[in-house]
Amino acid sequence: MSARTALITGITGQTGSYLAETLAERGWALHGLVRAGEPLSELPGGAEPIVGDLADADSLRAAIETTRPTAVVNLAAISSVAYSWNHPLETARVNGLSVAALLDAAHNQQQQTGEPVSVVQASSAEIFGAAASAPQNETTPIAPTNPYGASKAYGHHLVGVYRGLGLKASSAILYNHESPRRPETFVTRKITAGVARIAAGLQDELVLGDLSIRRDWGWAPDYAKAIAAVLEGDAPDDYVVATGVSHSIADFVAAAFQAVGVEDWRPYVSIDQSLVRAGDSPEMRGDATRLRERYGWAPSVDFEGIVAAMVAHDRELLES
After folding, report:
1. Is there a catalytic annotation at residue 316?
2. Which of 1-10, 166-175, 243-252 is predicted least confidently?
3. Which one is catalytic: 59, 84, 98, 148?
4. Catalytic residue among 17, 84, 98, 126
5. Using CB atoms within 10 A as the burial measure, which of 44, 105, 120, 268 is most buried?
């Protein structure tokens, strides 16, 4: 076994793939959790596949017992707030109970071997719900307003419990983070892919919900580096990962159209009230001072750069 071996759940997702590439460059040996029957094509970072399922605690324990990692990063989750409203029990099981299984298995391994095991849990700004003030930091009250946020809050609290038992366990409280690897099921990629199609004459309009919602959007590769810093660091704790700057959905739309040379985007956008989500916080904006002061982390790509990169990628996909 390598001196540093990580088991990553969600390794084929946006953040997981960037994290795997980052850790591989730093000499980590990697294992990626995959579901039974999933095509075992090459995983990011050259990771070795290990079969498991977030909804099956026994399989998660077996994955850790088999791989004997020095670190576990849990990025896999049901990540859609809308889906969580329609499937609250599944969301609780997949996003919450899986964290309990992973932490317990990591703690058991540490107890048996006497060797420390690090765990980083991907928490979410949604644990703060409709926060009374912005920016939010690690001391902001946890008060989720949807089943997704509640499931993430349970996992977040469990990390603190196992940290109290001596496990090197941290929560990375991730604010919205984007890249060309973001699926089109997310509104940001829906916007950039739609703008690319509109610019190519393949689509007439974008249909969106509440344009006033404000979010703190960062660059996913930066957030992967933040997770790596926490994983490799010596100060297990809760860490907000955010840029400290918020923009509205309307700002995102405007930046996307700006990237294709369209100044007035309004004729191309219509509003569908059925797309407005219940319990949405008007503004989520994070304060990453703790992460910056302890590990020197800072975002490297600004808002306009993120949107432009995503639009450029979607235009390249159309051309190819």
Report:
1. no
2. 1-10
3. 148
4. 126
5. 120
Q: Where are the domains of the chain?
A: 5-177+218-241, 182-215+245-280+301-319
Calculate the alpha carbon distances from 229 to 40, 108, 319 in Å: 28, 24, 37
Residue linked to tokens 């953040």: 15
- CATH topology for 182-215+245-280+301-319 is UDP-galactose 4-epimerase; domain 1 (3.90.25)
Catalytic residue list contains 148: yes
The number of angstroms, rounded, from the C-alpha of 283 to the middle of its chain's C-alpha atoms is: 18
3-state SS record for 81-106: HHHHHHCHHHHHHHHHHHHHHHHHHH
Residue of 124, 151, 179, 281 marked catalytic: 124
CATH topology of domain 5-177+218-241: Rossmann fold (3.40.50)
Q: Is the pTM of this model over 0.85?
A: yes
Is there a catalytic annotation at residue 126?
A: yes
